[in-house]
Amino acid sequence: MKQVISFLLLQLLLSSCSIWDDDTEITRPFPVDSISVVSIVRNVIEFTAINNCGSMCWKQTYFESNISRSDVFIKTICVYDGSAVCPEVCIEVGTPVSITLPAVGTYTFHFWQSDSASRDTIIVLN
Question: Rg of the chain over CA atoms, in angstroms?
Fold first, then answer.
């Protein structure tokens, strides 16, 4: 009887592990602590968006942008392995951001920090 119970418990454990997806990826926005303008060529602006306390478990970062007249809203996103155990260590992570603007003019860039705050900078294209 003891072997039957052990076998059933082992089966239960193995079946519960099989429903967990080891390739679980989690995406979430992360705040931009600082930005660096890399280049401005014609109407293309390249930045590096920096997060001072990124994670060693971030597999990649990317950005999403939305241009509304002279306002450019940028949200940086990280993708990390949700099944990995990550050390609590902050590392600086830079995400390349390239934005093509529709015309010359003055633009305000709003880099997401939270749903109610952003890091803003103004750039004039001649």
Answer: 22
